[in-house]
Specification:
Length: 502
């Protein structure tokens, strides 16, 4: 049997070159055959255990060189650790940068809204996480089951609480209102951003970016209100936001180690729709600068201002791609320059002269108003990314009361026993208001657009003036009505907006 086998191979080796010479196209076949060898016999056994025969297999004597594929290493800046750190580290850096200027930011607050106080931020910090549970209980599933979500939230709160309180009672930074030495960082803001990040990861990444928009809008407004309420410095709020986001991201990594793929709902990949197929109904948050056009712009005499600020919410429902109806709730405030205010003859001798040599030492609270307007909206596409929004709206304004505070002269301080005294009050009445303006949109995706807007607001409220006439036994000023007049509070505003496309 062996002689027959080797004889066959000898004939094959002699015949193949001749075959290849006769037909050059068969060279590849010759090479393949010459590259074969006899493999050692392998015994095959059947289930009965008897030897059924010996099989021989032809296998290559050598292999063609194969290309080595190197797996490209992930750059450090693309690692998960880096990606979850970018936003928190940015907040930490902004907190450090703003630290030397925190007094300036507070002074800006005191010029515009010195008496502002609203406790809504105590509730607002929890709204995003309340939305997470509310949606689940309503049958709208998030990325994970409620049990896993709760465990993740609990870990976030634990880490956030340890960090925030550990830093608070180590640094012992005095609050801007002087109430306690535990300002840095802001616990309300950290809590709000934990809640917002939970909503973002459970529903914003899973169902629609609108959930992320509203969650972070609530968190951002919580931080803003902490400053408006004079409870925190701007650096407290920025670092608190970073801690809230970072601890939640770390909690999600820990939850993956605990649960792996358990308690994970089926993937619902968000499918964006072309913006051209949608109606441009929207809700937006906006902020900008305001420039006076009426009486406040007159710097010749009396109270005047140069620039103020405006902020508010706006939204509209569109019946089709171009026409809709909507409204706006906004506030505008102007700091008042008082160096040209003329005092009553019976008051002037008691007030200290200004150190600049012009006018008196007066502090005039900012003049402001809230606006509520409604009207038609229009929209026109400029391209796939850009569009123009415009409107005309009418409604009413509600003015904010204010007062003029005077620093008393040394003689008056000895006589009255006070260093400062409110010498005048002003009370605007509700009035008709209308506005018109436009906004340039840039669409980031099918649900979010950023905008630059300009707006003209017409407003002429009746202003009632009350001047001091005496001081009661409790050293409180007694006021008497002096005059009323129409006050032109009209102004232009220019700013930017973030828009959620519904």
């Amino acid at each position: 049997m062996k002689k027959n086998k080797y004889g066959f191979m000898l004939v094959l080796l002699i015949a193949l070159p001749l075959f290849a010479h006769a037909n050059p196209t068969n060279i590849q076949l010759v090479d393949e055959v010459l590259n074969l060898k006899l493999e050692q016999p392998q015994l095959n056994y059947k289930s009965a255990g008897y030897l059924s025969g010996v099989d021989y297999a032809l296998t290559p004597m050598y292999s063609l060189p194969q290309e080595t594929v190197e797996v490209e290493k992930v750059k450090w800046y693309n690692t998960r650790a880096a990606r979850i750190s970018y936003v928190p580290v940015t907040f930490f850096a902004l907190g450090a940068i703003s630290w030397p200027y925190r007094e300036d930011v507070r002074e800006w607050r005191n010029r515009f809204i010195p008496d502002y106080h609203n406790a809504f931020d105590d509730v607002l910090q929890y709204l995003p996480i309340m939305a997470v549970y509310g949606l689940n209980w309503a049958g709208v599933e998030g990325k994970h089951g409620l049990k896993r979500t709760t465990v993740t939230w609990a870990m976030s709160l634990g880490m956030m609480g340890i960090l925030v309180n550990g830093i608070k009672y180590t640094t012992k930074v005095m609050r801007p209102d002087g109430s306690s030495a535990n300002a840095f960082p802001s616990g309300h803001t950290a809590m709000a951003f934990v809640s917002a990040t939970m909503l973002h990861k459970e529903f914003g990444q899973y169902r629609s970016p609108l959930y992320s928009f509203f969650g972070y809008a609530a968190a951002g407004w919580t931080g803003t209100m902490r400053q408006m309420n004079n409870r925190h410095w701007v650096s407290d709020v920025l670092v608190g936001a970073g801690i809230g986001i970072l601890t939640t991201e770390v909690a999600y990594i820990l939850a993956e180690q605990i649960y792996d793929e358990k308690e994970t709902n089926p993937i619902k990949k968000y499918e964006p729709k072309p913006f051209s197929d949608q109606k441009p109904s929207f809700l937006s948050v906006k902020i900008g600068f305001a420039s006076p056009m009426g009486d406040l712009a007159n710097s010749e005499e009396g109270a005047y201002t140069t620039n103020g600020f405006t902020a508010g919410f706006e939204g509209a429902y569109f019946f089709n791609r171009n026409i809709g109806i909507g409204g706006e709730m906004s506030i505008t405030s102007f700091p008042i320059n008082s160096d040209k205010i003329e005092l009553l003859p019976e008051v002037a001798p008691y007030v200290e002269l200004s150190s600049t040599g012009q006018g008196y030492e007066l502090l005039t609270e900012a003049m402001g108003a809230a606006y509520y307007v409604l009207g038609p909206y229009g929209y026109v596409d400029l391209s796939q990314k850009f569009g123009i929004l415009f409107n005309v709206a009418a409604g009413y304004s509600r003015g904010a009361e204010g007062q003029v505070l005077a620093k008393l002269s040394e003689t008056a301080q000895e006589e009255i026993g006070l260093e400062e005294l409110v010498i005048s009050r002003y009370e605007p009445e509700d009035a008709f208001a209308w506005n018109t303006g436009g906004q340039l949109w840039y669409k980031l995706n099918d649900k979010i657009a950023i905008g630059a807007y300009t707006r003209f607001m017409f407003n002429k409220p009746k202003l009632n003036i009350y001047d001091i006439v005496d001081i009661d036994d409790n050293d409180e000023p007694i006021f008497e009505y002096t005059e009323s007049s129409k006050f032109d509070f009209s102004h232009w505003s220019l700013g930017f907006s973030i828009n959620a496309i519904l």
